[in-house]
Every structure is written in structure tokens, then in C-alpha cells.
């Protein structure tokens, strides 16, 4: 298994509080030494004020058949509703993917994969649920330009 200390590449962080576990989650990319591949990894803490309390990196996706990273996935982002956690990522071929898992299985079980958007897009998608509405806003980049899609 890859040790965090073996990697010199860490990128695209997201931090959020996951109420069912009563923990903070840090989601980020970790480079695999000697390969042109990356993990989507997570670390947790119960005390966000203590930078030394974060756990070691653990992978979220396993690289299996339902893992869209085969197409160059990057910039991972997670949101949750009452039943599921959704993992969004982009691939370098103009696609944005959405994977989901039941809240009980989080941070594992992201084996439901579907194409969420195909357009002239590149990376850095951030998806948010609009407060008190059943609508979502995605902010996404197209080679240095920002687009806003709802």
C-alpha cells in the first residue's frame, strides 16, 4: 500500500464535516510515485484545529471497472443528501462524472458511476446544493475559464 510519505504530489483539497461519523473529512489527490496515476484519498480528524490529528491517506476508489479515472479523472468533490454521498470528478476528455454511495457505506462503496455532464469542460468542478431548494449549482473550468452550470 502507498504510504503518504512516498508521494510528493498532493492537490485539490476539499474539507467538510460528515455528521454521521462526527468527523471532518479531507478529500484530495495523491500522486503514486513512479506512475502517472493518482488516488482520490481521504483523511479524517475529530479536531480540525489540530493539524497533527489528521489520519494517514486512505484511497476512496479502487481503480476497478466502474472507476472513471481510466479516462484521466481529477479534482474530486463530495456532497451529501439525506441518503447518499456523491463524488464528482472530471476527466480530461470533457466529461464530468458522478459516483454515489449510501451514507452508511461512506467513504467506501462508490460503485454507482454515471456521466453527469459532457461539454467543453476541463477540471475543478465544485457542486453545491442550493439552500432550501431541490436544485444544484456546478462551477467548472474550461482551460482557465470558469463556467457556471445549474
CATH architectural designation: 5 Propeller
Oligomer: single chain
Distance between the termini: 39 Å
CATH C-level class is Mainly Beta
- Low-confidence runs of at least 5 consecutive residues: none
Quickly count the domains.
1
| Main sheet strand line-up | 1-2-3-4
Q: What is the H/E string?
A: EEEEEEEEEEE
Total number of helical segments?
0
Average pLDDT score: 84
Number of strands: 11
- Sheet bearing the most strands, described? 4 strands, antiparallel
CATH homologous superfamily heading? Glycosyl hydrolase domain, family 43
| Strand percent estimate | over 45%
Rg from Cα:
15 Å
Residues in helices, as a percent range: under 10%
Mind explaining what this structure looks like?
With 150 residues, the protein is mostly beta strands. It has one domain: 5 Propeller (Tachylectin-2, Chain A), CATH 2.115.10.20. The chain is built from no helices and 11 strands. The protein has strands at residues 10-18, 23-31, 38-45, 58-59, 74-80, 84-91, 95-102, 112-118, 123-129, 136-142, 145-149. The protein has a 4-stranded antiparallel β-sheet, with no helix packed on it. A 4-stranded antiparallel β-sheet has the order 5-6-7-8, with no helix packed on it. A 3-stranded antiparallel β-sheet has the order 9-10-11, with no helix packed on it. A hairpin with a 3-residue loop joins strand 5 and strand 6.
Which characteristics define this entry?
mainly beta, four-stranded antiparallel sheet, 150 residues, 11 strands, single chain
In short:
With 150 residues, the protein is mainly β. Helix content is 0%, strand content 51%. It has one domain (4-149): Tachylectin-2, Chain A (5 Propeller).
Amino acid at each position: 500500500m502507498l504510504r503518504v510519505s512516498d508521494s510528493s504530489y498532493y492537490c485539490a483539497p476539499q474539507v467538510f464535516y460528515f455528521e454521521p461519523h462526527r468527523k471532518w473529512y479531507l478529500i484530495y489527490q495523491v500522486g503514486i510515485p513512479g506512475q502517472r496515476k493518482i488516488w482520490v484519498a481521504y483523511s479524517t480528524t475529530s479536531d480540525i484545529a489540530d493539524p497533527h490529528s489528521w489520519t494517514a491517506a486512505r484511497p476512496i476508489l479502487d481503480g476497478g471497472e466502474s472507476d472513471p479515472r481510466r479516462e484521466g479523472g481529477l479534482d474530486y468533490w463530495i456532497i451529501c443528501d439525506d441518503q447518499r454521498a456523491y463524488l464528482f470528478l472530471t476527466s480530461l476528455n470533457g466529461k464530468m462524472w458522478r459516483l454515489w454511495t449510501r451514507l452508511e457505506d461512506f467513504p467506501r462503496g462508490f460503485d454507482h458511476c454515471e456521466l453527469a455532464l459532457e461539454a467543453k469542460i476541463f477540471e475543478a468542478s465544485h457542486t453545491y446544493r442550493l439552500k432550501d431548494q431541490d436544485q444544484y449549482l456546478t462551477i467548472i473550468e474550461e482551460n482557465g475559464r470558469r463556467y457556471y452550470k445549474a
